[in-house]
Design goal:
Blueprint: E1 2-3, E2 15-16, E3 21-26, H1 30-45, E4 49-51, E5 59-64, H2 69-87, E6 93-98, H3 99-103, H4 105-111, E7 117-119, H5 127-135, E8 140-142, E9 163-167, E10 169-170, H6 181-185, E11 189-190, H7 193-205, E12 210-214, H8 223-226, H9 231-238, E13 246-249, H10 259-267, E14 271-276, H11 284-289, H12 296-309, E15 314-321, H13 328-341, E16 345-350, H14 368-392, E17 397-406, E18 411-416, E19 427-430, E20 440-449, E21 452-457
Parallel strand pairs: 3-4, 3-5, 5-6, 6-7, 7-8, 9-12, 12-13, 13-14, 14-15, 15-16, 19-21
Antiparallel strand pairs: 1-2, 10-11, 17-18, 17-20, 18-19, 20-21
Helix pairs in contact: 9-10, 12-13, 13-14
Length: 458
């Protein structure tokens, strides 16, 4: 590998040297994964060798998550694991990026001296220079303004070739009292529509068949520069792109679901009948304490209207148990609401008091055991709802995006339009004809296995 020697400015020629191997571990949500892919592309363009075997790399970048306590612990555990490998001489340098680095700047620098670099979000664009500096023996600590980090550019995809996430904005203006995202990533920044469409066209040309739109709140797209949501218009433009088959929406907040958006979902075949709408709770009292609008009655009206407007739509939501002040009556209201609406997909997590948020200082904090018990009750109820929904699909023929072959089970598997990657179920199937990852095929559902479906190619 040939790299330009940055210390030989003005000198002619190139200096030959061994390629520096760089590995990256990216944790947390798809938005963080977008940052990782942009950084990996910059590293590759700078001449570094990207390796999937992080434990064998010269430089390891840990792109951290800092959203809730479990995510922070996972990030720290990964840093410490690589610190041990560094001590044993298996790797040479560690750079920490991502939300945890942005949020706990001084703490990481002071308490984890094993880290050779700590970069805030605004320094992501300087990742190649940071690697050069740490391999040269320097310690790099950089926290420029978050707006320095551009949301578009070349990406080195870490997803399979046939699907990709597409970030349409970053940051959030909702200011929920439990959430640290505005503290970490700032207010909502939408990408220009031309930029988003151009990237989608490039991804489609590279063989991507499913685009998954993400932001902290996708329904706020465009409100920062147009004063209204431009998501419906964006979807119409994306549907014109040849080669795209599915377009999926994640992180749509209930208060920002509009008639225009529902019209597009109902009208455009490429926009799958699937909406991820995190509600967090159904008790009006708890929602008010979260600084979120609505109550059980308004949410019930919304979801009934969505189902009427888009027949057959699959609804995913996320709820939280144990928010400060949540009593048994509030929790019962949440459980009753879940059983009434019967979300096809639902995730639940226990409240985590995050430093710097209003909710961490509220009175009437709920004990950990109670929070966790309530979470388990919600997930047990949802298991019955999901099983009932899956059973109703037996006998149906569905379109499946083929992902891979499970050599242990001896089944191929993939996802239907009802399933987002990583968070929803799989469709396992047999076939007598050749298939390969990325194919779109028809599968007749014959059985249910836990959360997943079993079928045979139709």
């Amino acid at each position: 590998m040939i790299l330009r020697n940055k210390h030989a400015a003005g000198k002619k020629g190139l200096v030959k040297q061994m390629a520096v191997k760089v590995g990256m571990v990216s944790l947390g949500c798809p938005k963080n994964q977008m940052d990782a892919e942009l950084m990996l592309a910059k590293l590759k363009a700078a001449g570094f060798q990207i390796t999937a075997e992080s434990g064998l790399a010269d430089v390891v970048i840990v792109n951290t998550c800092g959203f809730i306590e479990d995510a922070k612990k996972e990030s720290i555990d990964n840093i410490l694991e690589f610190a041990q490998l560094k001590k044993e001489g298996q790797i040479k340098k560690i750079i920490v990026t991502g939300c945890l680095a942005q949020r706990y700047q001084d703490e990481l620098v002071q308490e984890l001296p094993e880290c050779d670099g700590v970069l805030g979000l605004g320094a992501n664009g300087d990742i190649a220079e940071a690697v050069r500096q740490v391999t040269g023996g320097q310690k790099v600590v950089s926290f420029p303004d978050r707006s320095c980090w551009k949301l578009d550019g070349d990406r080195l995809l870490t997803t399979p070739d046939f699907f990709a996430y597409l970030r349409i904005g970053d940051g959030c203006n909702n200011c929920c009292t439990y959430c640290a995202i505005p503290l970490i990533r700032g207010g909502m920044r939408s990408r220009t529509m031309d930029s988003v469409v151009a990237e989608a066209e490039d991804l489609a040309a590279r063989g991507v068949k499913e685009l998954i739109l993400v932001a902290q709140d996708t329904t706020l797209y465009g409100t920062d520069f147009q004063g209204k949501s431009l998501l419906p218009q964006l979807l119409d433009r994306l549907c014109e792109i040849e080669g795209l088959h599915w377009i999926r929406l994640l992180y749509c907040y209930p208060e920002h679901i509009t008639e225009e958006l529902l019209d597009v979902i109902a009208r455009q075949d490429k926009v799958v009948n699937y909406l991820d709408i995190p509600i967090q709770h159904a008790s009006g009292k708890v929602l008010a304490a979260m600084n979120r609008p609505g109550d059980r009655e308004s949410l019930t009206r919304l979801f009934r209207h969505i189902r009427e407007k888009v027949p057959g739509i699959v609804l995913r939501t996320t709820v939280m148990t144990g928010f400060p002040g949540e009593d048994e009556e509030d929790f019962a209201a949440l459980c009753e609401f879940i059983k009434e609406i019967r979300f096809e997909r639902l995730g639940c997590f226990a409240f985590s008091p995050e430093e710097g948020t209003v909710a961490s200082t509220l009175p009437d904090q709920v004990p950990e055991k109670v929070k966790n018990r309530r979470r388990d009750i919600v997930m047990e109820a949802q298991a019955h709802i999901s099983d009932s929904y899956n059973q109703s699909r037996v006998g149906q023929t569905v379109e499946v995006l083929v992902e891979s072959f499970d050599r242990y089970a001896e089944y191929w598997f993939g996802r239907s339009a009802a399933d987002a990657p990583d968070i929803d179920c799989k469709v396992f199937f047999t076939t007598k004809t050749r298939v390969q990852p990325g194919d779109l095929i028809k599968v007749k559902i014959t059985d249910v296995m836990d959360w997943d479906l079993i079928g045979e190619r139709a």
